[in-house]
Structure formats: C-alpha cells, structure tokens
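Below is a filled-in request sheet from our internal design queue. Each sheet records the structural input a requester submitted and the sequence that came back. We keep these sheets so that new team members can see what a complete request looks like end to end.

REQUESTER: design group, bay 2
PRIORITY: normal
MODE: inverse folding
CHAIN LENGTH: 499
BACKBONE (tokenized):
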C-alpha cells in the first residue's frame, strides 16, 4: 500500500472523539494523486490539519519541454499544486515538519497580524523580519489602550510592536500584555511570546502565566522559550502542562506563514458552459503534435476565450488581400517555428499592404516556415500569460503570470491543478509577486481580475473536455479597457488510437 491508502484508512475510520487531528506525512511516490486529494481534503474538512514532505521530485522533464509552460512547470510544481488544492502544508525538512505540527497544536490563526512580545530586543527583531518577509504583518500598535498598557510596564519598555518589556519584565506584566493583545488591540490576530532567562529571577512563574493565558485568551499565543539549558527545569515544567515549546523564532515565523497561506481544501466549482461538441470534433480531426492555427482558434473560441481578429495566408496575393480586409495597424507572425521572435518571425505595426507583402516574403525564407498569420494590432495594455501542461497521473497543471518576455525573465508564476474553481483562480492571480502590476500601480489601470479568472476557469474546462492536450500557451494576452484578448497561442496534443 501507499500513502494514499493510509489516508483513505484514516479518513474512513476517523472518530470525532479519539482520532488524531494532526497528520505529519513523508512521501516519496504519489501513485494516485486524485485519491490523495480526496482523502486529505476530507480529513481536513473534518477538522484535521496535515503537513507533508514530498521528496524525490525531479525537473528532468523540463529540459525536453518545447513551450514556456513546459519549461516553467514541472512535476515538483504539480506536487505543490496538488497539496495546495488539498489544503496540505508542504514542508521541506523534518524540522519544518515538526514546527508545523507544533503550530497545528495551537488555536488556528484567524488573521495574519501578529504581536511580537519579547523581553530581548534581538530575537524580537529577527522574528519581526521573518514574519514580514514571509507575508505576515506586525502592525503598529498605538492609541489610548497602548498608552494605558505602557503605564503598567517598566520605564523604557516599548509597546509599538514588537512589544519589548525589558529583561526585568515579570510574569504580572506579561499577563497584562496578553490581556491587551487579546481584548484591546483590534489590529492583532495572534501573539508570539519570546521569553528565555535574563538570569535575574526564576522564570517559572512567567511560564505559568503564559500557560494560563494560552487557555483563557481567544486569540492564539505561540511560545518561544529559547533558554533550554539555563532554565531546563522551568521549560520542562511548561511542557508538563501539555504545552509545546518553539526553540527558534525564525523557524516558527516560517511555519506560521506557511500555515496561514495554505488555503482550505478547494471547493469544486460549477464548470462553465463551453462548446464541448466543437472541441471534441476539432480534437478528433487533428493530428498529434502542435495544432494548426485554425484548430487552435477553434478550440479557444469554443472555450470562450477572446481572440484578436486574424487571417492565415500562404502566398503574397492572399497577404495583400488579408491586409486590406483587416485594415489599420497589423502584426505578422510566421507559422512553423516554435519560438517565432527568436528567428525573426514577428513584425508589428505594419501600416501598408506593400509592407505586409514584403514581410511575407522575408518570413517565408525562415527555415521551417509554413505560412504567416496576419492580425489586427491590439491597443497597448498589460501583457499576461496563461499556460497548461499535462503531468502524468496529476492531470493538467495550469500556470498564470505576467506575459511576454516577463514570463521567462521573472519566472513569477502561480500554479493550480485543473479543474479550477473561481476562488482558486483568483488566489493564483493574487499570489503572484507581480500582483501589484495586475492591481494597477502609479496611475496605470490594472487588470480586470474577474475576467482573468473567468478565462482561467474556461481554460480549465477546455482541458477537462480535451485531455489530449499536452501543452498550451496563451502568451501574451493583452489586458486593456476591461477586456483581455489572446494575441499569440499554441496547443500541442497527443492522441491515442482510441480517440
């Protein structure tokens, strides 16, 4: 049996009263991703929390990939996308796995705004840096309640966050601080307390208060007790109360962030209505390999993806006729070579039929050229990227990011497994490091996120209707004036004799 069968057993035998709610998993082989997804999602929905290490991932397949998506998204990304869809927190070391289980043993986070409470400035600064670098927040604390709290602490203390109550801070003061963070500070969702020993007094009373507040406060409190040698007896006492001690603040920060940023198991969305009949007919008639431009357009239009008007030409006379018919500024792209711009197979802002005819003759000299696509130029906008790659056993991995050259240079992508729900699609968009550009920055209009997510969901439906698709690139899509139009696209299929 494999880990999938273990999860199946844990799921089907789950007992509300007696079963463990924390699962720590080490995996080398995922033989049945759908089974793992089904039972891990079910366990998490029953109240369990799961963290896992997946070892043995390989990127060797990316070297042979012919598309942007193939080069960017490999089997390891498929594992991460599967875990994300299932609600599993992915870890990469035994230590991280244990820290995550420690986080799971506390009350769940209901927000990412953390109060850092310490009697030692250095660890507090390190924790603050680690939290914010990993997408959490350490908000500034101010106002009347903050001023009240400051009067209860020794002179020189700071409550702005981190809350530093000095080496002389005592149990009573820690209790006051935790009461304020729990009940008076509305911009705080959880607290981390760093308290070792200053060598001035017995810290056991401090740990006793810490335990009491962890039981009575509604917001989670995570303890970091680093002095495991100097005050071993006091730390052992704290653990004897049924508590967990985090010994290192940066590792805790990373675990907290991963826990917060891993969503609940994805809910199955309603599949959009697309023209499945046309999709199946197109796939049936097509040959394996990269599809012809018309075949690609037929599939994308059937999936309700907006495309720029275009005409495919194979001779000079048709080029002139197409340029006259489309009118205005035009773009021309060679058919045949995979990466057109690398071989000089793209020309933009063509303004006359004479130019179009001349460029056609030049492009047909490119090795492997089969014809030319002429398109109307799209107004300037933000370039986006969407792609998909078929991963053995996992299904289709969908990738999004900024388009054009950015997808190769920045490699800032989000991945998800088909089929996508709207929530998953929006989360993928918002998880991009370049999301600020998509949102709109410095007066530049942003992207219609709802429309972008809708295209991703439609693309997901296309992949479910046409599992023969091996690779798909829409690069770029141009987002402008509330519309998103695909201007360059290709699809590769692999067919069996049963198709």
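RETURNED SEQUENCE:
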């Amino acid at each position: 049996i494999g880990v999938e069968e273990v999860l199946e057993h844990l799921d089907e035998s789950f007992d509300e009263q007696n079963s463990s709610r924390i699962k720590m998993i080490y995996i080398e082989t995922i033989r049945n991703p759908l089974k793992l997804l089904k039972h891990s999602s079910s366990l998490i929905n029953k109240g369990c929390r799961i963290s896992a290490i997946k070892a043995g991932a390989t990127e060797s397949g990316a070297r042979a990939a012919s598309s942007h998506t193939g080069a960017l998204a490999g089997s390891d990304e498929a594992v991460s996308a599967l875990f994300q869809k299932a609600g599993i927190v992915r870890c990469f070391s035994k230590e991280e796995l244990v820290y995550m289980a420690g986080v799971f043993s506390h009350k769940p986070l209901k927000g990412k705004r953390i109060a850092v409470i310490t009697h030692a400035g250095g660890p507090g600064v390190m924790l603050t840096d680690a939290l914010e670098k990993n997408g959490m927040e350490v908000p500034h604390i101010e106002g009347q309640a903050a001023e009240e709290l400051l009067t209860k602490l020794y002179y020189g203390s700071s409550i702005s966050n981190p809350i530093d109550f000095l080496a002389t801070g005592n149990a009573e003061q820690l209790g006051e601080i935790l009461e304020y963070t729990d009940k008076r500070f509305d911009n705080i969702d959880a607290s981390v307390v760093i308290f070792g020993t200053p060598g001035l007094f017995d810290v056991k009373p401090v740990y006793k208060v810490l335990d009491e507040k962890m039981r009575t406060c509604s917001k989670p409190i995570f303890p970091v007790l680093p002095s495991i040698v100097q005050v071993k007896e006091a730390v052992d006492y704290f653990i004897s109360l049924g508590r967990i001690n985090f010994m290192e603040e940066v590792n805790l920060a990373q675990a907290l962030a991963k826990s917060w940023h891993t969503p609940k198991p994805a809910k199955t969305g309603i599949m959009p209505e697309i023209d499945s009949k046309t999709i199946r007919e197109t796939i049936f008639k097509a040959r394996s390999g990269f599809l012809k431009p018309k075949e690609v357009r037929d599939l994308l239009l059937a999936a309700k993806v907006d495309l720029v008007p275009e005409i495919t030409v194979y001779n000079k006379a048709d080029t002139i006729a197409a340029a006259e018919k489309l009118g205005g500024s035009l773009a021309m792209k060679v058919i045949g070579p995979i990466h057109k711009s690398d071989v000089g197979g793209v020309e933009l802002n063509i303004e006359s039929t004479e130019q179009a005819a001349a460029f056609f003759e030049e492009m047909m000299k490119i090795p492997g050229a089969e014809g030319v696509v002429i398109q109307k130029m799209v107004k300037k906008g933000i370039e986006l990227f969407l792609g998909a790659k078929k991963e053995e056993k996992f299904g289709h991995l969908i990738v999004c990011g900024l388009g054009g050259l950015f997808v190769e240079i920045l490699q800032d992508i989000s991945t998800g497994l088909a089929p996508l729900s709207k929530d998953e699609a929006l989360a993928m968009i918002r998880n991009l490091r370049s999301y600020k550009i998509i949102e709109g920055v410095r007066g530049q209009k942003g992207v219609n996120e709802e429309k972008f997510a809708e295209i991703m969901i439609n693309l997901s439906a296309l992949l479910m209707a046409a599992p023969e698709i091996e690779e798909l690139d829409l690069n770029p899509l141009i987002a402008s004036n509330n519309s998103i139009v695909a201007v360059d696209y290709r699809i590769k299929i692999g067919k069996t004799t049963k198709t």
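SHEET NOTES:
- The first helix runs from residue 3 to 12.
- Residues 293 and 483 are 22 Å apart (CA to CA).
FILED BY: M.R.
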